[in-house]
Sequence to fold (144 residues):
Amino acid sequence: MSKVTISLNGRAFTIGCEEGQQAYLRDLAGHLDGHVRDLADKVGQIGDVRLLLMASLIVSDEMREAQGRTESMKEEMTDLKGRLSQAEARVRAERARAAEAVSRAAEHLEALAGAGEPDPGDGPGDEFDDDPGGDAQGASGETP
Fold:
């Protein structure tokens, strides 16, 4: 166990603490001492016990206000998480609709491309079809 000396209202106090907590306790004592000094400036030196009691009440009030703000922030965070979840759901739905639209557009383009494709028999060099009537008979009337 370690010891640390703190000052309240101009008086030094040595207290025990866990190793490594000295700076933290000095910081806490400094906060409390600030309130004690402010009170002493306002109401005078009315005794250490009364000044410490009043300062402790002020610190307790600060803590209660901080807890209230923390609760408000937790509620706001819960609300924001809900909104985020709803927004993410809307984004997923929009992405699904967009994917469906792209898929339908691709199918439509494939159908259009398929409608304009030449017949398999219409290849290069078939422009001059020897048998435009399609009956495949030669000049003598025989089938080749």
Summary: The first strand starts at residue 2 and ends at 8. The helical segments are 22-43, 48-115.
